[in-house]
Amino acid sequence: MKMNKETASFVKAARLTLDKALRDGCTNEGYLSLLRTWSEQKCCGALLEIVSIERTSNGVKRVFKCGHSHTAISLEEASNIGEGISYSKLEMVDGKQKVGATVDGTRMPKEIREIAVVKLLCHHFKPHLEKFSNDIQDSPVDVIAENSSGLIENFQVTKLYDEQFWRDLSKEKTADRVLPEIESLVGDAIKRKVNFDKGSKTNIILAIDAWPGVMRELAEKMASLPVVRSSNFKEIWIAGSIPEMTFKIYP
Ligand SMILES: [Zn+2]
Description:
The protein is of the alpha+beta class. Helices cover 34% and strands 27% of the residues. Strands 8-9-10-11-12-13 form a six-stranded mixed β-sheet. A hairpin with a 4-residue loop joins strand 9 and strand 10 (152-159).
């Protein structure tokens, strides 16, 4: 089967990533089966063919002919953390049938996770931000993002539950039971901000790590929580792994 150049290099990369994932002992069956499918130049039963490529300074999105797409976010600033483990890139898939996010590596330290969450958010919603770094420990800022002219945005990243929880929540639609938890989570984030820099004018964007993401209905309920409305953050985002499951809930 003849392939265009982009498709050929994507299929080759899928094969190499699959080999590496197997060598590293990756046990994420969903991820492995995607890599196997792509290695055979297939996606959802169709022939995998890349029809367009969109680049931002943070990553690249490849759109397949079948309608699925693949977004790779480079995580080069994180590669020097953790010896012997490479976090060279974050890869994810979107489209109707396959939703998932994964990182090239078996463990992800908190600092890397924070950069990954902010970088992916910025890739989709703030593409002008292109340089990312972790702030000093115990500050209310976890990630500092910068654009080419030196403009800075400060991010605090907070996590509520693991990925499985958010997946189950999306399926079961029991949004109400999670709202009190979110209320106290945002409350804690506010305390961390206020206690640290009383009187400082630091503007902080709060990113709530909710990979793989939430449904619109839940985001709307979160947005109406009094603690969210009165939090004094510059912005509050529920950050999912795809733009369709990511929402700005404040302002
Ligand atoms: Zn497909």
